[in-house]
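Worked example 2:
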Amino acid sequence: MKTVIVGMSGGVDSSVTAALLKYGGFSAKGGPASGWNVIGVFMKNWSASSLPDAYKASRDGSEDFGDYGCTWAEDSEDARKVAQTLNIPFYVWNFEKEYREKVVEYFLREYQNNRTPNPDVMCNSEIKFKVFLDKAMKLGADFVATGHYARIQKSKVKSQNFKSKVKSTFSLLKGIDPAKDQSYFLYTLKQEQLAKVLFPLGEYKKSAIRALARKFKLPTAEKKDSQGICFIGKINVTEFLRAHVKARAGEVVLAGGKVVGHHTGLPFYTIGQREGIGIGGTGPFYVIDKDVKANQLIVTNDKEDKQLWKQEFIVTDVSWTGQAPKFPTKLGVTIRYHHPDYPARVEQMKDGNLKIKFKEPQRAITVGQAAVFYDEDELVGGGIIQQVL
């Protein structure tokens, strides 16, 4: 019987993941169909001690954010109860140091540089499928599993698009539930990681997961889905950023230069943003650019403004799940979570970065976000948006 260590967050998804593996409801090729030796692990990545004093002082008590937004104590207890229900071993692994260094500091550094990062991508890359996976393997596990809505297939898929006859041994596919598909956050996974990871929920829709949780009589069956930043929770992101990121107030201007208001600091705004700009008049207004040198936030009140809709951009820090394609090539490209993957031409530049050109203009292509590439349902790679042309 093979051993799988399940990352249990205390939510319904990871709870059902553990149950499916325990009771043989999921079989990886080469793994037993009658059930696994399942071990549950809660990753403690964040707690109130990780929060800056400036953020704690900013809370006026008007909202109940529990442990300053982080519910790790409650979540770990929920995970423990599920493990008891399933009669599996349960442990808590502390990765707070790694999480702060690899995820939180990256998150804050990107905002300080007027970019809009996606911390969930970095959390998966550096924590779940690096330090967690590495520790599990060192302890003798055969696989790790998480509650992501995605699929991994062991296959030999031929493609004219790629340099080799075989695209990859392990293919990373979208989850079958389009409303829950989380493959976007997993683009940094390589073949050696995909070979050791299980995603049992990828073949299910969310409604079925709730039904399974009730069937297995899991204590998390009716628990609401978590919101907010990966492992941090419902923290007020703007207040959190203000406690860490240095910024100066400045003017909000239209593209022609007319001053229409004042902003509280450029890092606190993102391209395409509508809410929270804080100006009246003939709105709504949308952020279309930041003039860092002049410390001006540039907005428009035309949601069809050409500056808000762009076709070309540069991607850096490129990662491929298998073989890199032969360039130039055509792939489906998505520029944010839950944004459809639209047809685009992908060209490799002399410096190794990629130049992407959409067939049609797309709204609010944002520096710092991940651009992820698909060949139909298969995720083949991705990178970080460096410049919008």
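The chain has three domains: 3-148+199-237, 247-300, 309-388. Confidence is low (pLDDT under 50) at residues 58-68.
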